[in-house]
Amino acid sequence: MMQLVVTLLATVVAGLGVTEKVLVVGASGGTGPRAIRGLLDGETIAASQVHVLSRNPDSATCQVLRKRGLAVHRADLEDATSVRAAIAAIEPTFAYVHGTGDDSKQLDGGEVKRARVLAAALAACRSLKLVCYNSAGAAPEDVDKVARIRQKRECERVYRNALAASKVCSLRANLFMEELWKKYTRPTILKKKRFEFSVGPNRVIYLTSVRDVGRLAARAFSADEDDVPKAIDVASDAKTPTQMAAAFGVPYRRNRLLPLVARLLAPELFQILRFYQTSSHHPKSIPFADVSLTSFEAFLAESHWSDPSRSYDTLVNDLLPDHDHDHHHDGGAHG
Questions:
Q1: pTM of the entire structure?
Q2: Which residues contact 10 (CB under 8 A, 6 or more apart)?
């Protein structure tokens, strides 16, 4: 047992080689910077090793990333030439793909097409060892019932078809905790002093911190190839709506009207609401037991949930560490 622990710790501390680079795609906006924060949480990756692709490298978020010591490169997944050129210049050892679609309520029909552009460029990169892709968790029988999940799984197939199977690890997330910070959720809870959701009060909801997705990607990059599975269910915590409301410090009220309205006016939303109410998905335990995942209560505390002066934007930028305080070691877009 002691030898196993020593071996595990040695693997974590060793980190990436000083010349190895991590490519990050689709993380310069939306929830993406939270994943980057997770990549940098441990001692395995230094900010100077992270290279971010963005179609808008002059954005406020990209300026923050540069200030924190990360490199930002211009590339647009609508322009295959720019993507190939950027990746060829970077020569990454690893890649984390947060997404190739827009972070919006509406399903982005161009997500798979952009994934094909990215996959082709990655396939041409001889230095690449592993790609971690932020996908969606669901039981097999539920995948085709939700367009958003089905599209994520199609992107998984795009990467696996373009690259060797051993080079792709899908990080299958559940309901992002960060979604609860968006303007259609958090203000209502803070102002009305109640949490409304469309599922039964005792129905278990699996929750994922985007930051944990980044942490698991970093851990996979430091692991031996044989120890990295093809897919990881990323469930940071599991709560019923009643338990979530208690964490918020407010009562829970089931919104029975929302699914009826969504069925008529927002079919994609209806699919998601029905999924949360009827899914048989039970995430498996993660293979990297040394990775600390975020409880829902810890997420609310770290993000200063109850502070009305904070917003979704401050949630993103406040959690990016200064590169002066990064861990340094001698060892080892569309967004």
A1: 0.90
A2: none
